[in-house]
């Protein structure tokens, strides 16, 4: 399956930047600003500082005061700008998805049988409404097909150009708003109210103003507010303590100290990080219904993966012919070859290919051939060739068939056949039994082909502490063999929806977080039960409602990427928080000596950066504090680099980069700015 | 410093480390109800007080019981002080303690601080010392340990509702841990020459022919628990530098061991109760690392004599001996000062006020970091666990998972409660300290940075429930008694309540089993991280005032300015 990705946006797209610059100013609105307490506090002191500057016009510190006030405003604007860029990028992604949606017109009908319809704009549709869609129509909203069958072009959201079939009943009934009917006619029951479709929800997730904070974001905000309160106390009590030595500290300098100490860096970038996380998900063509589930994805301990299509290639390949003792291998191959001539499935083709390569068989030139297609009822297929009936299928159905032909009562399966079947199953293959007339010939070994590279991916997941469990309908013997070959940690054989649900509950009872993907209606309970349930876009509406994410490409292996995006989101927050707090050390060394130098000249010893003057030291610290937000926007948008590794390795690396780096960087940065400030004579 | 000094420090650390698993294991047994040798007494007590041992409490019930019990203890101690003139066991005929002093002293002993605005031998009757102070020495220590055990249960249990029964924890701590240890310790101290009697004060004639009143009384029984229970309130005014309160070099090292012994061992109790001793050792290592750094700085600072004295041509080979007992010398004074402030104990064997600026900085920083370097019995570890929550939350995110500690997810509620507890120190030390500085400048003895250090030390000591002081600052005024009383209560209960609330929050959570993706909290990386977070949070909060106090004093001392 091809993974379609919208056009990669360059990090600084000119149109987005322009819009973001305007939005940054709009976001100064206190009602919006208050959602971010750290920035709200910064805004408040910027107002205070500006007022003080106006009051003290012409005083000795006036020039520095003007600059400090200006940089305080820049700090808030830069933070708004970061959020606006992330939002702009998110909106651009979402707009590409939304595309045709707004222009759609719905043809509402009163009942499934009704021929007359009433046209109305798609936005007016409510859940439960029935609409009819004919060839050429755009489907006006998410829903379920309740009557008819049609081919639908879903390229607008999946990027897959081949139209897909959607029909009532079964697992292919769900349709997405914005897709186009190519042929035939269907009646769709709308399942979402206006503004609640997947796309609407996704768009809300990338718009800062409407975005709900995720649980971890709330916790982090509390931490940041707590830190800010501590620094508020530090700064507010400082004049009292300083008065003992007769030091008077200008209010603006105290304000500067406060703003440099509170975690403005992470405070300013927090919502940008969150939006960018959602944005990365959209880029992978996954739509999440909430930010919460993206975060939860980072915590996943257990991944349930369907075998077919995820771990193995969808199709199995014939690997060998296993004739019974009184049968020639060539006879078996010939029968298998003939029975597969009309079989268009990949399995059938692979049997032909194997027979050709082993015995150089060719298609018979003459002879009447009647092909018997596979049916779920008989569970076998075959050919009637020159009066001989050749059949292939599951061992029990073929033996029953042979017994019937021979006029025996269907009984046990011959021992030899059982052994051959078991031999195939033990190595993870699927046995296909072949019979000619009333005679059993042998077994074709169909082999599951493990996807290339999947073993390595599982090893990576294991290193990350994530357990992989393969879900398969195969018998335990086959499942165990494939599980071993693919390198999954565990498997669930002969899986039924009930068994799946039970497995998830068991893991959750043990305290683990489980992710799974599914498509059928019978997956819905399990999807709802899982902590992260990814529904395939090709699946039923029930499945899509039950999961917390929808994968537009219907690619189950994407669970792995989703987990990584979740982890990256949390890591980016943690790393920037660490960086932000570590920064404060250098700021103290810049500002504290500057504040008290007049009373205690000896404190010059703490001026380790050897900054030019107290004024330039304070100004440099506040400039650094504002500029670092701009400098870190790319990191916030792209996310901290995530390499799958154990927690210990990740922690050591990130502590070194963002902790130790956070200590060191501002010493250099403030010094450089101070040199510039002094050279330009700004303070 | 000489080799003997270094050897003494090493022996001291080795003894503490060796005792940790032994005592820790024993205490874990006590809290899991496996110690039963005083069964009849224990059951008798429960029967008498109507405690149903089978009924465990939700954290709110636990907290209410604790508050009620402490309030009752406070009222009893207050009453005893006011009425001591009419009560027996008062051979020195002490009058009633003035109300504001009695108020302050009752709070101070209830909160395990033992800040003393009075001299014991000149203010209190034997009855007040024994039934009032010594009893609070036991139960305030037991209160701290009970809170810790409740918090440990929060982490150890899963999907539960209750965190234990306060009264059971209190009784078990006292009966099986504090009483037996104190009993043996007191006998040992008596053997070393400490008085334990009800005699009136002896009047002796000195060599110069002057009369000297020699105070005595039931000293050993109070000193034992004073050291063991991180109380610190001396029988005598000069505490453990008094020959009757610390008679011999052997009593000195044993009393120093008592300072840290239980607090250190509780880390192991924690490890055992959460079924992973490595977790306890990691916290022990973090505490130990900070202790060793403090010891190093203090000892180094004190072995260097005051440069002004060197300039005056005085003998400085011994280092800075001002305010130190000649019997103990530099190493033992520095170890004691570091350990007593690390442990939230507050007993002293030298005068911290006379330390060199950097030497005095160490006790101050030990307290300002939140009294978590071993800290008070119970209190140190629950304070540390609050820091662990913050450290795990910040750093845990960096491994790409919702932060978790011991399998419990750290979410908004835990962060909120931890931040609430962390706000206590800045509010109380910086806020109330500044109020005292501005409101009562007359209480300060010295000018300049040293005077500022005196106030800072006092409020750090009160908030950390330590009880030691930079002598020179007068605490016994109406404003200062009130502000200090507020600091004592804030530092005790505004940490205890969030700690219990955290216990209540995490006890209900399920346990996420560890995997390779779990943030490991038992290795060196975690130890360094935890120390880093404590140092950064404490450092960022107090660096400005420390710069105005000991740091600038040190810099000015180098330039020849004294205070």
TrEMBL record, chain A:
GO molecular function: ATP binding; ATP hydrolysis activity; magnesium ion binding; P-type potassium transmembrane transporter activity
HAMAP family: KdpB
Protein's UniProt name: Potassium-transporting ATPase ATP-binding subunit
Stored CDD domains: P-type_ATPase_K
Main location: membrane
Organism: Magnetospirillum aberrantis SpK
Membrane topology recorded in Swiss-Prot or TrEMBL: Multi-pass membrane protein
Domain P-type ATPase A as annotated: residue spans: 106-207
Coiled coil, from the record: none
Location in or out of the cell: Cell membrane; Membrane
UniProt keyword terms in alphabetical order: ATP-binding, Cell membrane, Ion transport, Magnesium, Membrane, Metal-binding, Nucleotide-binding, Phosphoprotein, Potassium, Potassium transport, Translocase, Transmembrane, Transmembrane helix, Transport
Assembly with partners or alone: The system is composed of three essential subunits: KdpA, KdpB and KdpC.
Active site annotation, chain numbering: 306
Main EC class the enzyme belongs to: translocase
InterPro entries reported for this sequence: ATPase_P-typ_cyto_dom_N (IPR023299), ATPase_P-typ_P_site (IPR018303), ATPase_P-typ_TM_dom_sf (IPR023298), ATPase_P-typ_transduc_dom_A_sf (IPR008250), ATPase_P-type_domA (IPR059000), HAD-like_sf (IPR036412), HAD_sf (IPR023214), P-type_ATPase_bsu_IA (IPR006391)
Any matching Pfam family: E1-E2_ATPase
Catalytically driven reaction(s): K(+)(out) + ATP + H2O = K(+)(in) + ADP + phosphate + H(+)
Residues that hold ATP according to the record: 343, 347, 374-381, 392
Top-level taxon of origin: Bacteria
Keyword Magnesium: yes
From TrEMBL, chain B:
Function of the protein: Part of the high-affinity ATP-driven potassium transport (or Kdp) system, which catalyzes the hydrolysis of ATP coupled with the electrogenic transport of potassium into the cytoplasm. This subunit binds the extracellular potassium ions and delivers the ions to the membrane domain of KdpB through an intramembrane tunnel.
Subcellular localization(s) per the UniProt record: Cell membrane
GO molecular function, one term: P-type potassium transmembrane transporter activity
Transmembrane segments: 6-28, 62-80, 130-152, 173-191, 250-269, 281-301, 372-399, 420-444, 456-474, 486-508, 523-548
Main localization category: membrane
Quaternary structure, from the entry: The system is composed of three essential subunits: KdpA, KdpB and KdpC.
Record-given protein name: Potassium-transporting ATPase potassium-binding subunit
Stored Pfam families: KdpA
Keywords of this entry: Cell membrane, Ion transport, Membrane, Potassium, Potassium transport, Transmembrane, Transmembrane helix, Transport
Domain of life, per lineage: Bacteria
Membrane topology value: Multi-pass membrane protein
Family of the protein in this entry: Belongs to the KdpA family.
Entry GO CC: plasma membrane
């Amino acid at each position: 399956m091809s993974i379609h990705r919208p056009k990669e946006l360059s990090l600084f797209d000119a149109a987005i930047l322009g819009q973001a610059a305007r939005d940054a100013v709009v976001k100064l609105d206190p009602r919006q600003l208050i959602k971010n307490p750290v920035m709200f506090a910064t805004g408040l002191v910027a107002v205070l500082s500006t007022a003080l500057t106006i009051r003290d016009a012409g005083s000795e510190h006036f020039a520095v005061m003007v600059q400090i006030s200006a940089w305080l405003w820049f700090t808030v604007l830069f933070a708004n700008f970061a959020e606006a860029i992330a939002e702009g990028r998110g909106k651009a992604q979402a707009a590409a998805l939304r595309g045709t949606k707004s222009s759609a017109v719905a043809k509402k009908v009163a009942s499934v049988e009704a021929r007359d319809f009433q046209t109305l704009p798609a936005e007016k549709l409510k859940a439960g409404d029935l609409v009819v869609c004919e060839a050429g129509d755009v489907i006006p909203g998410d829903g379920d097909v309740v009557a008819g069958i049609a081919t639908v072009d879903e390229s607008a959201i999946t990027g897959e150009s081949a139209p897909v079939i959607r029909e009532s009943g079964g697992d292919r009934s769900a349709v997405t708003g914005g897709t186009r009917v190519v042929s035939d006619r269907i009646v769709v029951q709308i399942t979402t109210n206006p503004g609640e479709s997947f796309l609407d929800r996704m768009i809300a997730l990338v718009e800062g103003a409407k975005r709900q904070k995720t649980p971890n974001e709330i916790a982090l905000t509390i931490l940041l507010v707590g830190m800010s309160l501590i620094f508020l106390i530090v700064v507010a009590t400082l004049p009292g303590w300083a008065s003992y030595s007769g030091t008077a500290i200008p209010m603006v300098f105290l304000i500067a100290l406060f703003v440099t100490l509170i975690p403005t860096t992470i405070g300013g970038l927090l919502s940008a990080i969150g939006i960018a996380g959602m944005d990365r998900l959209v880029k992978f063509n996954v739509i999440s219904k909430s930010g919460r589930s993206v975060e939860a994805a980072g915590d996943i301990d257990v991944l349930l993966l369907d075998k077919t299509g995820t771990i193995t290639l969808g199709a199995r390949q014939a690997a060998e012919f296993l004739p019974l003792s009184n049968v020639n291998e060539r006879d078996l191959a010939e029968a298998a070859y003939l029975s597969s001539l009309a079989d268009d499935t990949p399995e059938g083709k692979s049997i032909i290919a194997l027979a050709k390569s082993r015995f150089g068989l060719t298609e018979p030139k003459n002879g009447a051939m009647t092909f018997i297609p596979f049916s779920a009822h008989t569970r076998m297929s075959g050919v009637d060739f020159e009066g001989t009936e050749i059949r292939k299928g599951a061992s029990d159905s073929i033996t029953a068939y042979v017994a019937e032909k021979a006029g025996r009562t269907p009984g046990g399966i011959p021992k030899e056949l059982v052994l051959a079947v078991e031999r195939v199953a033990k190595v993870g293959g699927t046995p296909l039994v072949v019979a000619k007339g009333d005679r059993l010939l042998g077994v074709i070994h169909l082999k599951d082909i493990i996807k290339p590279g999947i073993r390595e991916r599982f090893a990576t997941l294991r290193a990350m502490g994530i357990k992989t469990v393969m879900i398969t309908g195969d018998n335990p013997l086959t499942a165990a063999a494939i599980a071993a070959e693919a390198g999954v940690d565990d498997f669930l054989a002969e899986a039924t929806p009930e068994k799946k649900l039970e497995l998830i509950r068991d893991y959750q009872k043990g305290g683990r977080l489980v992710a799974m993907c599914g498509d059928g209606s019978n997956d819905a309970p399990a999807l709802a039960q899982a902590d992260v349930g990814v529904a395939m876009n090709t699946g039923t509406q029930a499945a899509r409602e039950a999961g917390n994410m929808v994968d537009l490409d219907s690619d189950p292996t994407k669970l792995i990427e989703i987990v990584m995006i979740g982890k990256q989101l949390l890591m980016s927050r943690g790393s920037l928080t660490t960086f932000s707090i570590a920064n404060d050390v250098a700021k103290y060394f810049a500002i504290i000596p500057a504040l008290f130098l007049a009373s205690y000249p000896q404190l010059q010893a703490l001026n380790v950066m050897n900054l030019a003057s107290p004024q330039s030291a304070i100004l440099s610290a506040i400039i650094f504090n504002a500029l670092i937000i701009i400098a870190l926007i790319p990191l916030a948008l792209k996310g901290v680099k995530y390499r799958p590794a154990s927690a210990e390795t990740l922690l050591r690396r990130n502590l070194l980069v963002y902790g130790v780096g956070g200590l060191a960087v501002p010493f250099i940065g403030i010094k450089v700015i101070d040199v510039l400030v002094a050279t330009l004579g700004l303070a | 410093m000489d080799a003997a000094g270094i050897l003494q420090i090493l022996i001291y650390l080795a003894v503490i480390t060796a005792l940790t698993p032994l005592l820790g294991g024993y205490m874990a047994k006590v809290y899991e109800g496996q110690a039963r040798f005083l069964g009849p007494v224990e059951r008798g007590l429960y029967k008498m007080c109507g405690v149903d041992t089978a009924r465990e409490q939700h954290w709110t019930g636990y907290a209410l019981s604790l508050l009620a019990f402490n309030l009752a203890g406070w009222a009893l101690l207050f009453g005893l002080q006011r009425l001591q003139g009419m009560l027996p066991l008062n051979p020195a005929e002490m009058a009633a303690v003035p109300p504001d002093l009695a108020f302050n002293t009752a709070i101070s002993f209830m909160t395990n601080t033992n800040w003393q605005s009075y001299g014991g031998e000149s203010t209190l009757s034997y009855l007040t010392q024994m039934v009032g102070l010594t009893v609070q020495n036991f139960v305030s220590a037991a209160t701290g340990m009970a809170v810790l055990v409740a918090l440990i249960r929060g982490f150890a249990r899963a999907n539960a509702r209750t965190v234990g029964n306060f009264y059971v924890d209190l009784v078990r701590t006292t009966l099986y841990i504090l009483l037996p240890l104190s009993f043996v310790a007191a006998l040992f101290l008596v053997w070393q020459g400490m008085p334990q009697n009800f005699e009136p004060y002896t009047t002796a004639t000195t060599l110069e022919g002057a009369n000297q009143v020699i105070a005595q009384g039931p000293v050993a029984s109070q000193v034992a628990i004073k050291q063991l229970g991180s109380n610190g309130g001396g029988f005598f005014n000069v505490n453990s530098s008094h020959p009757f309160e610390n008679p011999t070099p052997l009593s000195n090292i044993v009393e120093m061991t008592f300072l840290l012994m239980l607090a250190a061992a509780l880390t192991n109790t924690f490890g055992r109760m959460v079924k992973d001793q490595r977790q306890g050792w990691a916290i022990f290592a973090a505490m130990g690392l900070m202790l060793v750094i403090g010891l190093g700085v203090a000892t180094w600072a004190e072995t260097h004599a005051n440069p002004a004295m060197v300039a005056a041509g005085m003998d400085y080979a011994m280092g800075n001996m001002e305010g130190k007992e000649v019997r103990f010398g530099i190493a033992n004074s520095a170890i004691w000062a570091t350990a007593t402030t690390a442990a939230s104990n507050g007993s002293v064997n030298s005068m911290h006020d006379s330390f060199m600026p950097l030497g005095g900085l160490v006790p101050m920083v030990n307290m300002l970091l939140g009294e978590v370097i071993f800290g008070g019995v119970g209190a140190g570890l629950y304070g540390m666990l609050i820091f662990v929550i913050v450290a795990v939350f910040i750093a845990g995110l960096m491994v790409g998972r919702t932060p978790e500690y011991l399998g419990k997810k750290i979410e908004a509620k835990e962060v909120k409660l931890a931040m609430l507890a962390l706000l206590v120190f800045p509010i109380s030390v910086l806020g109330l300290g500044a109020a005292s500085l501005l409101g009562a400048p007359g209480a300060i003895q010295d000018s300049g940075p040293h005077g500022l250090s005196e106030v800072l030390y006092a409020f750090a000591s009160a908030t950390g429930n330590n009880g030691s002081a930079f002598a020179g600052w007068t605490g016994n005024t109406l404003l200062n008694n009130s502000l200090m009383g507020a600091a004592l209560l804030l530092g005790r209960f505004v940490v205890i309540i969030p700690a219990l609330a955290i216990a209540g929050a995490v006890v209900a959570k399920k346990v996420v089993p560890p995997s390779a993706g779990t943030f490991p909290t038992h290795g060196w990386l975690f130890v360094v991280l935890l120390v880093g977070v404590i140092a950064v949070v404490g450092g960022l909060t107090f660096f400005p005032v420390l710069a105005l106090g000991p740091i600038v004093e040190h810099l000015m001392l180098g330039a020849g300015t004294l205070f």
